[in-house]
Design goal:
This protein is an alpha+beta fold. Helices cover 26% and strands 33% of the residues.
C-alpha cells in the first residue's frame, strides 16, 4: 500500500505544472496608455485594451513602477501599441478591486 501511495505522489509531482489563476484577462489591441506621476503607488502605468474581455468590469489594468517586472511589461505594452499587435494582459484584482497586471503577451 505504501508503494502505491508513493507512486501516486510521485506521478502527481512529476506531471503537475504550476497553476496560474488570473482574475481577468484583457485581450485585444492597446487603445490607450496613461502614466501617473505621483509619490507612492497610484497605478503608475495604465493600459487600456480594446475587445470584450474585461477585468472586474474594466477594460484597463495597471502596474506600479515598484513591481519587479515593471520595465519588461511597459516595454511589451509599448511594443504592442507601436506595432498594433494583439496583446493579452493577465491581471489580478488588488485590495481596492482594480486590476494589477501580472503578465502580458503579444500575439
Amino acid at each position: 500500500m505504501r508503494k502505491i501511495f508513493s507512486a501516486a505522489v510521485a506521478t502527481i509531482v512529476l506531471f503537475s505544472g504550476p497553476a496560474n489563476a488570473w482574475d481577468g484577462i484583457l485581450s485585444g489591441t492597446v487603445v490607450g496608455i496613461e502614466t501617473i506621476s505621483t509619490v507612492g503607488h497610484n497605478m503608475d502605468f495604465r493600459v487600456y485594451i480594446s475587445g470584450t474581455a474585461k477585468c472586474n468590469g474594466n477594460s484597463w489594468a495597471y502596474i506600479d513602477s515598484s513591481a519587479h517586472n515593471y520595465n519588461g511589461i511597459v516595454a511589451t505594452v509599448l511594443t504592442a501599441k507601436v506595432t498594433k499587435s494583439s496583446i493579452s494582459v493577465y491581471a489580478n484584482k488588488d485590495a481596492n478591486g482594480y486590476c494589477q497586471i501580472g503578465d502580458v503577451s503579444i500575439s
